[in-house]
Design brief:
2 copies of one chain form a homodimer. Chain A is an all-alpha fold and about 200 residues long. Helix content of chain A is about 75%, strand content about 0%.
């Protein structure tokens, strides 16, 4: 990595928590100068606009979150256990993320009525998260670990909706309990309604 | 209402969609001047600061949303049907709200790391919504319409989390389907796990 590339990367890493906490509009050039220790020219030598920096900061924050959510997921051969692990990672591994909450929620809420480039970034992030949950679910159906009547897309949406909604409540109340409660709810739901009963009986033999 | 009071109310009504769409930071004085047709002095004659106007705009947006969610809820004697009506109102009556999505979500996301006065407003809004759902649930338990093991606070949180999370997805994808899907999920959940079975058998006799 050249020195220029390293500086560019440093700027993205330092800008990411600002954009994630304060939003695109709420983050000023002076915030960015203060966080990076650079002058305006030093920042804009590497990025054509605040928007370009915000897009790369989103990608950085999202890739941190997305990779944390996959921690240890592939250790399990059973699709239900893999879904539960993704849920538990979302709930438990928050302190290792870029500060400011879920970058998807933050960017979606700010950009749904505004910035098209950021909105498209958030859409792609949602699409990839839902895609991962869907493919685990489809794999579970194929291996008769998950009931064949389950719709992978709807199940993914439900999991994401519950987690994001509970995160909203948890952050507003500064209390982790709502996240813990929905994790328990989702685990129970996956066991009672999604895990293939046939398979469970087989494994008890 | 005096002319001054009327002007004040007009400013709040015109500012509310701006703050709800663009956020506190994203709404500029020139946006407010453009929307109200007033000069700076004309606005600040009625409000001590942009923050005071934003707080009143939030209260206005929230009161519209909160009252829509209660439409026809008290027409039903059964607590499960009242909960289902509140859920259906959230999903169906969106076009009559202040534009820009749920004011609670918008304000919570912007204010969770920032503005304390707006955050406290959003906390109160969440508290009152959850309180309403909880009191319907408790009433249902008292009248043996809802299973006695149900925790009113946790059920309220679950309903709010699912609805807010699905709204996030729906707004980002510009597609109402995720909201319709979770409505169906919640209705099924309320019937299968929350409605008192004893009571259902009785009513079939």
């Amino acid at each position: 990595m050249t020195k220029g590339q390293q500086t560019r990367r440093d700027i993205v890493e330092k800008a990411a928590p600002l954009f994630n906490k304060k939003g695109f509009e709420g983050t000023s050039l002076s915030d960015l100068m203060h966080a990076t220790g650079l002058q305006k020219g030093g920042i804009y030598r590497h990025f054509s606009s605040k928007e370009q920096l915000a897009r790369e900061a989103f990608d950085y924050s999202w890739s941190r979150a997305a990779s944390k959510r996959l921690d240890g997921v592939d250790d399990s051969a059973n699709a239900i256990d893999r879904l539960k692990k993704m849920i538990s990672n979302f709930v438990e591994l928050r302190s290792e993320l870029v500060p400011g909450g879920c970058p998807l929620m933050n960017t979606a809420v700010e950009a749904d009525d505004g910035n098209a480039a950021l909105r498209s970034r958030a859409q792609k992030a949602l699409h990839s998260w839902a895609g991962r949950l869907s493919s685990i679910t489809q794999d579970g159906i194929n291996h008769r670990q998950i009931r064949p009547g389950i719709n992978p897309k709807k199940l993914s949406q439900l999991i994401i909706a519950i987690l994001e909604g509970a995160l909203l409540i948890s952050r507003l109340q500064k209390d982790r309990q709502p996240l813990q409660d929905v994790r328990q709810h989702l685990d129970q739901y996956l066991e009672d309604h999604v895990r293939s009963k046939a398979r469970r009986k087989e494994s008890r033999r």
